Description:
Rossmann fold, 16 strands, alpha/beta, 38% helix
Amino acid sequence: MNNVFKSYGFNWVVILTASFIILLILGCKKEDIKDDPTDTPFVRLVESSIKSELMAHTIKYSVLLPADYKTSGLSYPVVYLLHGYGDIYTAWSRSGNIQYHSDNLGAEIEPMIFVMPDGYNSYFLNNFSGTYHYMDMFVKELVPEIDQLYRTKKEASQRAVMGYSMGGYGALALPAKNPDVFSISVPLSMSFRTDEQYLEEPQGVFNSQWASIFGANGVSGPARITPYFKEYSPFYFFDQNDLSAFSSLKLFFVCGDDEETLSVTNGALHNLLRSKNFAHEYRMGNGGHDFGYWSKVLPEALRFISKGFKGESYPPELTTVELGPSITNGQYIQENVAGTSASIGVFRPTNYANTTASYPAIFYLNDSEGTDRMTNAVKVMSFLNNNMQSGKIPHSVIVEIPCTNGNVSEADLKSIIAHTESNHRIVTTKESRVLLGNSKGGENAWLLMPVIKNNIKNCFIFDALLPDNAIGDSGIYYYIDATQKTSSFKGNHSLYVDLKSRGLAREYRVRQGTVSFQSFINGMDGSWFYLNKQLKNQ
Length: 538
């Protein structure tokens, strides 16, 4: 009997326990059920590493995925981002803010995967002795791993390399030496050296930064230029008659004009490529060796990469800058200058008649470039006046001087200055006067400045037709602006290098476009900050 009771008691316990569990389940609210632990949140920035057999150690890298990567099912092109000397693989995601810049462009660019590997101080090359195989690792191990782990487009046309400083060199060398793997190259302030710069490197810097890669440790003089250096120097591998090996290379490179030496290096490479008629895009802008400058050029760099991925040619011209409303006929006065054959055009600012103030002066050498002089004069004066009205530059008197053949003489210009001082209220100080010219007018302005610098301090020239060995003069402020396709690419670079080497005041720009009146207008549109400072003598 006791056993029966125990058996029945046990059954009741089981029944009650089961009922309680069922009631608990039925009473649970739906929102209390936890998500499937295998459904992990999508993380766009992924930290990873590769165990390299070629390098015999583990190399870290980051991957930034497109925002729609998890849901789209699509495959994407890949951009490899290379860091500078002394930095690590996280530099592009932290200091470079690559996610912000790529997301900010939105539909302007193709969605793309960014891969950021640790490059140490390797310059992303194998070394001369064959004991360090970084480039081999990159091409034979890293790229295949990325293609295996992620949905990538695996053609060379769908891979780009972009980098800054040391990484800028890697961004050039990797595609140049591996055209079957990469097709797009975007160096930012590429760190490399011309032969002359290489020979001038202090011995300690040479030994630590260059000799471990290219050889000649402890060596000075021409023996530094080893065969391995020549093999990987763009000043050698681009300096040949047959460049068909680089026919698939799409190249866009930039540098800031405040760089210590790299602006000279990058400008020299641009000159070499221009002399070889090798298609490329080059920009020289305001800035130094930091992300303050690189962040400004990243949007265009990413657009270039995107167009390359889509197989589209890069537009040869900037978006056209609009002139704005035209000045009236009464605002443009033609005057003859005694003692010369010159007939000048004078523009007075809108408030000129209502004050007794003196105004800054802009002397404009008008190279009408085969078109009607008056048409160009009115356009330039209108453009300047509209930017006076908007406050970008101070209200100024504009003196237009015809310069069809670039033949305004020192005597003529001094007579024109004296005439303007006598007949119009302009400031007497040279610091608030500008001589401005484009094309032949730019060359004429450059030639005249040394002899009229006691009358005018500032020289603004646009696509000036300068000789290859152009140099500047002290006591003058130079603003040099050139399209990348100007015929005088060597002369403009030479003038900049001379001024820089002597620590003389200058700004230098190389920008998108070809020589035309419209490109002159586009160039002026980038000069307002500096023109404003000089006219105000700040």
